[in-house]
Hints:
Strand content: under 5%
Structural class: mainly alpha
Number of strands: 0
Distance between the termini: 124 Å
Number of domains: 2
Largest sheet: none
Shape: elongated
Number of helices: 12
Amino acid sequence: MAKPLMAKATAVWLVDNTTISFKQIADFVGMHELEIQGIADGDVATGVKGFDPVTNNQLTQDEIDKAEASPLYKLKLKFNAAAAGEEKRRGPRYTPLSKRQDRPNSILWLVKFHPELSDAQIAKLVGTTKPTIQSIRERTHWNISNMQPIDPVALGLCKQSELDSIVQKAAAKKAAEGGVMNDDERRKLVSTEQSLGAEAEPKIPAGIEGLETFTLGGGNERPSADPMVDADSFFNLPDADDEDDEDNSDDPRG
């Protein structure tokens, strides 16, 4: 249900100028009943000037009369033809002036880490134009050498839920096309919540890649040595007895 403009100021005016119940006012302006009671007690909205919803074309006097006559009656906001369709207005997202200088950095981040997103999706997400996105993709942007990829959520250009929603749509489209994705692409196509909740998968170091099926022998037997290689013959060490005999044979007194 649509709420009136300047809800707190409207509530102040209704409390001061009508006998409508706190519950009815709270439902109409979208506040809690205790807040309305706080306004009546002077504890809430101190110094706020009342905003007349009748003269400002948000409420009719007939609605006020009905609400005063019946505590169960719910006030209805006056229909304003000029405001019809305002909530569904289409067009590029408005970006505050203070954040527009950071927008190219966010586009670079999206192009780098989510290349599956289309130009139209990026333009809608951060409020930019397709030529700007194309120049960043092709690295022909006039300031490309000074740009750094920065998460648009961290810059406040969009919400995390909005980014996750677009990424999920891209994942569904990729799955429908039946394209083969590598591990990095799969990680990019999941939302942040899913990525943080996933269990870490053990990875094989690049140095031993390809040895996944290598196993040691099942028994206690050691592999037989090469018959041509023998430790004693290799070093050719004489026995202790042979050394004594050689020493005795060299003695002239023997």
